[in-house]
Description:
This protein is mostly helical. It has 4 helices and no strands. The chain has helices at residues 2-24, 32-66, 71-78, 82-89.
Amino acid sequence: xxxxxxxxxxxxxxxxxxxxxxxxxxxxxxxxxxxxxxxxxxxxxxxxxxxxxxxxxxxxxxxxxxxxxxxxxxxxxxxxxxxxxxxxxxxxx
Length: 93
């Protein structure tokens, strides 16, 4: 299980590094006012992007479910309990 968690951490770290690199592109905007407005737009629109990560997680849980795992097994596989796994699957978490 710890190896699986290490793989998940490595995958998350890789994605987070790419997100940070993308955000760092704002620093290259030469006009400070434009840079500040662009950063503000990113901050304002960022919460909507969380939905994408939630959908990816929900689809992964659905794949595990269709693969024959029950919710206690799914919860253990993703590092949570069965009720949270079920809520993720239902799109409630």
